[in-house]
Design brief:
Blueprint lengths: L1 H24 L4 H29 L10 H27 L7 H27 L3 H35 L9
Helix pairs in contact: 1-2, 2-3, 2-4, 2-5, 3-4, 4-5
């Protein structure tokens, strides 16, 4: 499974580099290119935080025991901070004014960020708060399912980004 994640991450990095190269070398549509650069940076910031959080979860870093009050409170604040961070990024995206060509990409990116906070983030807080091993295992499965849905949404964001760039005159070949 880790190989699949790394393979997908590599495709995303390659696609980002291709898009950035085209954006930097083109002279027309500077507003759309600036928009793309800004929103892509915000998207990847969210993705990195999500991946970091999920890796910590898999490594057992969020398995805090409530009897160790300090550790529990720290872990709870840490997972709550993820949603706060993503909400802040989402506010930045909401403040951007997309062109007509970028609207679908914009809305899909907002949906991606909303899914992280309302789905993954909420489940992660429940996971830290839960003390029964069996219930935590069930939540871990739910979180893993949610992470997979978010990954599909991330792929959709990338598809919408490519569509947007094609509409504004930049042809981008997707990584296979």
């Amino acid at each position: 499974m880790r190989y699949l994640l790394k393979n997908r991450d590599m495709r995303i990095i390659i696609l980002t580099l291709i898009i950035s190269t085209f954006a930097l070398t083109s002279c027309s549509g500077n507003l759309d290119f600036g928009y793309n650069e800004k929103i892509a940076g915000l998207f990847y910031s969210c993705k990195e935080k999500l991946d970091e959080s999920y890796n910590k979860l898999l490594e057992g870093e969020y398995d805090a025991d409530k009897t160790d009050e300090l550790s529990y409170e720290m872990k709870l604040k840490e997972v709550q901070a993820l949603s706060s961070y993503i909400k802040g990024i989402k506010s930045e995206v909401n403040a951007l004014k997309p062109s007509e060509a970028a609207k679908s990409f914009h809305l899909t990116t907002i949906a991606y960020m909303t899914r992280i906070t309302d789905g993954y983030g909420t489940l992660l807080v429940k996971y830290v708060d839960e003390q029964k091993k069996g219930a935590r295992q069930a939540l871990l499965r739910d979180i893993t399912d949610e992470k997979a849905k978010i990954a599909v949404l991330a792929d959709t964001c990338l598809e919408k980004q490519v569509e947007f760039l094609n509409k504004v005159g930049i042809k981008v070949a997707t990584a296979q």
